[in-house]
Amino acid sequence: MSNPGNLSKGLDGVVAASTRLSDVKGDIGQLIYCGYDINELAGQVSYEEVVHLLHHNHLPTRRELNDLRARLVAARELPQGVIDILKKLPKNTPPMHALRTGISALGCFDEHADDDSMDANREKAMKLIAQIPVVTAYFHRRRQGKTLVHPDPSLDEAANFLYMIDGEKPSEEKAPTIDMC
User: Fold this and answer.
1) What is the b/e burial string over 22-36, where b = at least 16 CB atoms within 10 angstroms of the residue's CB?
2) Which of 50, 115, 125, 154 could form a disulfide with 120 if both were Cys (CB 3.0 to 4.6 A apart)?
3) Given CA atoms 155, 180, 125, 67 in this order, what sign does their dihedral have?
4) Mapping DSSP to helix (H, G, I), strand (E, B) and coil, where does residue 22 land?
5) What is the 3 state secondary structure string of 62-108?
6) Cβ contacts of residue 171 below 8 Å, gap of 6+?
7) Other Cβ atoms within 10 Å of 40 Cβ, number
8) Where are the beta strands (DSSP E) in the chain?
């Protein structure tokens, strides 16, 4: 079948959505977050700083970063019911299925699940940012037959995730690498 004249294939040139958060310039391999080229951010700012950027459209001040880190640390703990569900999943459950199930279960234990106000949705987003790595780490360790490692409030998000996966504090080289990723 021929492509007469100027017809586009697929979604070439079609804008699917507009957002202030990001811009993908696939033709030149560029990803922009809130006006920052991802390559300028990678290795220069922390995961938490990018979270703040995406939520507030600017990189955080020291105080804002400390406040965000404290909020994420406080939100890491999972309800025992979610942990129980994760423990009951078969070890051969595909990881994405386990993650989906864990996230759905979090909603069942959220006393504000039906509150769709902007403030409630922002709070839910922060909790999910903090809890998704915990769900992931718990399922990973459980399917390996290892004991669960609970979050360490003294660690940032990347280091805490590695700690929960590996069962030991990450090296000074390993933590910044996962933070950048």
Assistant:
1) eeeeeeeeeebbbeb
2) 115
3) positive
4) strand
5) HHHHHHHHHHHHHHCCCCHHHHHHHHHCCCCCCHHHHHHHHHHHHHH
6) none
7) 11
8) 22-25, 30-33, 36-37
76 vs 69: CA distance, rounded Å = 11
Average pLDDT over residues 53-57: 92
pTM greater than 0.70 (yes/no): yes
Using CA atoms, how far apart are residues 72 and 48, in angstroms rounded to an integer? 9
Question: What are the b/e assignments for 145-167, b being 16+ CB within 10 Å?
Answer: eeebbbbeeebbbbbbbbbbbbe
Per-residue pLDDT tens digits for 138-177: 999 999 999 999 999 999 999 999 999 999 999 888 988 8
- CA angle, residues 166, 169, 175, in degrees to nearest 5: 90
In the three-class reduction of DSSP (H, G, I as helix; E, B as strand; rest coil), residue 31 is classed as strand
**Single-letter code of the amino acid located at 104:** S
Q: Residue 46 gets which letter from DSSP? A: -
Is residue 38 within 8 A of residue 31, CB to CB? The reply is yes
User: What are the phi and psi torsion angles at 89 (to 5°)?
Assistant: -65, 140
Residue 128 has pLDDT above 80, yes or no: yes
